[in-house]
Write a structure and sequence with these properties.
The chain is mainly α. It has helices spanning about 60-70, 80-95, 100-105, 110-115, 125-140; strands spanning about 5, 20. It is built from five helices and two strands, in the order ββααααα.
Length: about 140
Amino acid sequence: MRTCATPAATNCSGCSARARSRPRSRCPSRCSAPSKPRPTAAPTGPVLLSGKGDALTRGAASRLLHRVVLEAGVTSPGSPHTLRRTFCTARLISGVPLRDMQYAMRHADARTTIRYDMARANLDRNAAHSVAAYLAGMAIG
């Protein structure tokens, strides 16, 4: 395998050569492609800020959401968990695999995530329906 002079722990974006430890800005292996940038560290600090620029607490975020829900004229109560539940339910209905949603929701057990799947009783998601649809497509084509 040829060796590229891109920074260590990266691959050349042009020739896919394995990296050496000596850093250079371009690949010398005839491709002249710039090296891939190293991933940066995740940003730290608060996600939401108050009007003063301080970190928004959980209670303050909840109160802010309640105020937005009332101003929007929504009659049912809204909470941060309502948004979380809606996110999970909508993604499961749209076909995102259960394991992916379990990871996104940070649930330790898949049974917790299954509770958010409102369409699990939908017959269109049954394996027998998928096989029948496949066979019907074969008969037509």
